Amino acid sequence: MLEGRCDAFDHPMEGTPWPHDMVISVDNDSYQVLELLWIREAWGLRPTGDGLPPLLVDPPARIGDPDDRDAWEGAWPEVWEDIVSHAAVLVEPSMFEELTRTADGSKERAELIRRLHGPTWRERFGDAAFTEEYRAWAEARFRAWRDDHPRSLAESPERRSLDALIPAWRMGLSKIITIPCRGEHTRVIGGSALLMTDATRKDPDRYAAALETFARQ
Asked: pLDDT-based confidence at 15, cuts 50/70/90?
């Protein structure tokens, strides 16, 4: 299983007005995000709060009830915000170099790894939520993503919505985060990231409208 993927579009495409210095990262398979979305539906959680994402397009089968439903439901929105906020941050390459200089098992290495991966549900509640059903669901999602992946940069959503992407990039956009959820759910995260559903990114008109919300902020 691939635990996350980031596609960077960082060079001009022949025959297009793609700016030579424009770099856009697309994070459409963050394992921290997917774990949390799966937990909500597999365990039948009903968290409340502003800005929570819609339900999954491909929901898992219900597993059962958690031993401490109140604690899980109460923590879910907070963990979601922490994970999304971290996903919006571009990792500095120097952090990987710094990691190679730390000793195995050291506190320094543990802290760097946490900074790289960010917060997770597991660090709050352990592994109890993750059954074999999660692995099967995640692997099926990866296979579907692989089969649906654009075969060329020219077919990518970024190329098809380039006219809207350029103004958003000029306003500071550097990262797109997508979630496999239903309908529309577009949010500006921090000053440089835009969260949306997979369906929004795949639709040129809806993607352009989402990019315009960033450019207008």
From this structure: low
